[in-house]
Design brief:
Bound molecules: BIS(adenosine)-5'-pentaphosphate
Order of helices and strands: EHEHHHEHEHEEEHHEH
Helix content: 40-55%
Strand order of the largest sheet: 2-3-1-4-8
């Protein structure tokens, strides 16, 4: 099964994709994670992407399209995948359609997490994660059980994403409205779009997404 999770920054795409990877055996492909790995490695792509990401803008289509074209041919993607953060422009969506049709494949479902954009600034600017194992936390919604100790691995070190400052989050939300929201009519026209309320509690969102995938 090939699925796209759509939604603005903070909608819960990464949180839900990690869960659905376990429950539905799909490989989670996050272009944000791929780009952050490129930045951390100091590669040519990473050097080009770093300042763009820190400003909250989109990295050029050509970079992302070639990254995904390569990634979906890897063995772990053969069992099906869940795209998180791609496509983000109509040009990326058209390229994805071409990549899949060349392999006589197609997208089974595109699921939009519908959220209140204003609430996303609080959601994202409170987010942090364990520097050692990556477990995710939030200043208000999800604190570690013991203050400053990771529930999963016991580490005391935590990190925040460079693009999670409130002013950058606003730029990212504007980029979503201007460049990514046009994908909603694009996929609606193809009859593959479903909507899920992303403001519901995390477990409820997972249950609703699971039902849509089970019916696909
Ligand atoms: P990327 O990493 O994809 O970031 P994003 O889309 O902005 O999404 P986030 O990771 O911030 O949010 P999310 O929806 O995954 O929410 P999460 O589950 O973490 O991209 C980063 C940058 O890379 C882009 O700005 C761009 O520069 C570049 N880029 C990436 N892909 C690109 C592309 N295709 N083209 C061009 N450039 C690209 O949840 C957020 C928080 O909310 C967490 O704390 C979580 O615990 C909490 N939460 C989640 N769900 C709920 C809920 N239901 N209730 C309460 N809290 C919740």
């Amino acid at each position: 099964m090939k699925v796209v999770l759509l939604g603005p920054p903070g909608a819960g795409k990464g949180t839900q994709a990690q869960r659905l990877q376990e429950t539905h055996g799909l490989t989670h492909l996050s272009t944000g994670d791929m780009l952050r790995a490129e930045v951390a490695s100091g590669s040519k792509i990473g050097k080009e992407a770093k300042s763009i990401m820190e400003r909250g803008e989109l990295v050029p289509d050509a970079v992302l399209i070639s990254m995904i074209a390569h990634r979906i041919t890897q063995p772990d993607a053969a069992k099906g995948f869940l795209l998180d953060g791609f496509p983000r422009t109509v040009a990326q969506a058209e390229a994805l359609d071409r990549m899949l049709s060349e392999r006589t494949q197609k997208l089974d479902r595109v699921i939009q997490l519908v959220v209140d954009n204003d609430a996303m600034v609080d959601r994202i600017s409170g987010r942090y994660s364990c520097a050692k194992c990556g477990a995710g936390y939030h200043d208000t919604f999800r604190k570690p059980k013991k203050p400053d100790v990771c529930d999963a691995c016991g580490s005391h070190e935590f990190v925040r994403r460079a693009d999670d400052k409130p002013e950058t989050v606003r730029t990212r939300l504007e980029a979503y409205d201007r460049q990514t929201a046009p994908l909603l009519p694009y996929y609606k026209g193809r009859g593959v779009l479903s909507e899920v309320d992303g403001m519901a509690p995390i477990d409820q969102v997972t249950t609703r997404l699971g039902k849509i995938l089970d019916a696909a």
